[in-house]
Design brief:
Elements (H helix, E strand, L loop, with lengths): L1 E2 L2 H8 L5 H10 L5 E2 L2 H13 L7
Parallel strand pairs: 1-2
Helix pairs in contact: 1-2
Length: about 55
């Protein structure tokens, strides 16, 4: 079971210094083996709203 938290997700999606450490968990996540608390979804939304994640071009 994988529990994704705000810190790890934001590190991964913003390509922060610990992104590689969290990549394994984010990339292995699926509906069957992952839990993402509602507060984490809200945190992702607000962080991306005020500090947009980088986009790949």
């Amino acid at each position: 079971m994988i529990l994704l938290d705000s810190y790890g997700g934001i590190e991964y999606f913003t390509e922060g210094p610990l992104a590689e450490e969290y990549a394994r968990y984010v990339e292995e996540a699926s509906e069957e083996n992952t839990v993402i608390p509602t507060i984490v979804v809200q945190d992702f939304f607000f962080k991306n709203l005020f500090y947009p994640f980088p986009t790949q071009e």
